[in-house]
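Dear colleagues,

As part of the handover before I leave the project, I'm documenting each prediction I ran so the next person doesn't have to rerun anything. This entry is a single chain, and its sequence is reproduced below.
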Amino acid sequence: MANFVEFTITKNETVREFIEAFGVSKKTTYKQEMYNLIRVNGEIKKLHDRVKENDVISFKLAPLDGAVKPYNGEVKIVYEDEDLVIVNKPSGLLIHEDGNTFNTLTNRLNFHYQQQGIDYPVLPAHRLDYDTSGIVVFAKHFMSLADLSKQFEDQSVKKIYVAMVDNLMTKKEGQITYKIGKDRHSKKQVVTDTGKDASTYYKVINEFENQSKVEVEIKGGRTHQIRVHMAYIGHPLVGDVLYGKTPNSRLLLHFKKITLRHPRTHKPFSFTIEETF
């Protein structure tokens, strides 16, 4: 059905239990009932109604209604199914509107779907810095958005980046565990005892005359985490205007590989986009 998302029930439970298992908020859950958006085998149902194995439950998706202003721009979709979309974000593009421009990855993607007759919002499940390229996961409906967002929040998503850093590294792999917090005097983040926990594991994968290419896995997802940690140990990223010293046409940081639990199958799902530097 157009503008509906469907699931086949695998166990006996209430409609409410099925929705909330995805991590959907109580407010959003109640809206499904309030606006009669829930169907089971084609019939409108309430949250207290029960479903059984092999029933088909569906939810009508809300229209755009100004939630996202579509923008006509290039977008590189590298994977898509009925629940999520993976886009290869270029460096130098915002994911969300900042009040000044509608030319963002989210607006571009929603223009793409609007051209296909899809008029409900497709939204990002996480953030990626303006200067960073690579994987951005979008949810195609509120159920997958809740499930994916929760995975990012509880840090169960495995995130691997590739970066080019200044100088050859004497220690070819290691873990950086300094806490990170906001600098009160600038737009920078800094290593500080009063900051939040952050863990960055790095491994050198290639070496050049005075630079190292590293693979990086992070836990914590603090703002500018990789940039702050690598600069702190004396290896700032190439092209980093905030924390580095070596100019480049772009920041050489790329979100390469993601592993998460697929919101529909609940099985591990991995995807890789190779860097181009």
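The chain has three domains: 4-60, 63-154, 159-255. Residues 117 and 219 are 38 Å apart (CA to CA).

All the best with the project,
I.
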